[in-house]
Amino acid sequence: MFSKLRDSFRKGMEKLRKKEGETSSPSQESLSKRKPSREKPEASGLRRITTKQLSEKDIDEFFDSIELDLIQADVALEVADFLRKEMKERLEGERVRRGKTDEALTESLRESLLMAFRKEDPIRKLEDAIKKARLEGRPACIVFLGFNGSGKTTTIARVAHLLSKKGHRPVLAAGDTFRAAAIEQLEVHGERIGARVIKHQYGADSAAVIFDAVKFARSKGFDVVLADTAGRAHTDRNLMDELRKVVRVNNPDLKILVVDSLTGNDAVEQARRFSEAVGIDGVVMTKTDVNEKGGSILSVAYATGKPILFIGTGQGYDDLRPFDPEEFVNQLLG
Ligand SMILES: Nc1nc2c(ncn2[C@@H]2O[C@H](COP(=O)(O)OP(=O)(O)OP(=O)(O)O)[C@@H](O)[C@H]2O)c(=O)[nH]1
Ligand SMILES: [Mg+2]
Asked: Ligand 1 pocket: which of 184, 315, 319 to mutate (most atoms <8 Å of CB)?
């Protein structure tokens, strides 16, 4: 994972380094002629010789050289644009040591990338929701939603497995009454991980299934309901209305968006539209084990402003890892 994106940054920096080499010993005359692109306090004396002022052009050149690779690595175009703009605002006119432009830009990019992520302990977030519900004498309700095939059902099984290991008692709600075999799929997971599944017939009202699961959990002393929902395109008005009803009727404690990390440029639109429709509290990015790219994680964080809680790292029940923004950024920048 990330190797491609990391290479792209390296390439960009290499180009910059070469360019800087050409102008590494400018005459005093050319230095004084250079017009600062923004009003910043003038450096004087030795500092003026040993440092240079970053121009808008420096930052544009850096981004021009990496943009295509960023996009090919699944970073959405508008996210790349955002990073460029954000870095310009922060860096233009700043003085950097000569020959150290690449380090300065990389370091700044690291800061920009980290700023796109809201750090949150995912297990704590789940357990806080359960604790809060318990204090109110009811089970917590956590709804998983997202595009077709993004990994919702698998993620529910993993989260149930995780919570069981932590001593919680999850119930699974078969809220996908739409896709053929969706109920049986959840039942198979339930059997394997030892969790109860509450279901209705296919075609039944998804909101009602989840409502019943909460009622069941409350009466039997289970402390959390993990609700599956049908996969849907954000452009499908009927299914998006159904999702709004699920949320209106059940008022979930957490709404978790599940996104396939292989989703390309569409990840931003997908995340944004689900977020607008029902509001989300966090994101799980799946299939990072079969994804060399990783850029969509950045796009989704940017589009939603919500924490990336977990990443799916394989096919097993334990293949769910808390997302670590620092690790992600470090891997990205090498
Ligand atoms: N390699 C890998 N495969 C995954 C991961 N997460 C899910 N999958 C696979 O992706 C496929 C779809 O997963 P589901 O959990 O059925 O996805 P879904 O969102 O519930 O799908 P629908 O209900 O059809 O919308 C399955 O074959 C999963 O095994 C992951 O982290 N890594
Ligand atoms: Mg499913």
From this structure: 315
- Tell me the residue ranges of DSSP E strands in 116-213: 140-145, 170-173, 196-198
Cα of 178 to ligand 2 centre, how many Å? 10
Can you read off the two tokens belonging to residue 128? 């806080």
Atom of ligand 1 nearest to the CA of 312: 31
Distances from the Cα of 255 to the Cαs of 8, 46, 246, 258, in angstroms? 35, 57, 11, 10
Q: What are phi and psi of 148, to 5 degrees?
A: -55, 130
User: Helices 295-304 and 77-91 meet at what angle, rounded to 10?
Assistant: 70
pLDDT tens, position by position, 305-321: 899 999 999 999 999 99
What ligand 1 atom has the least distance to the C-alpha of 320?
31
Q: How many C-alpha atoms does 227 have within 13 Å on its Cβ side?
A: 32
Write down the pTM of the prediction.
Answer: 0.86
145 alpha carbon – ligand 2 mean position (Å): 9
pLDDT tens digits along 3-27: 555 555 455 445 434 544 444 333 3
Which residues neighbour ligand 2 (ion) by CB within 5 Å?
A: 152-153
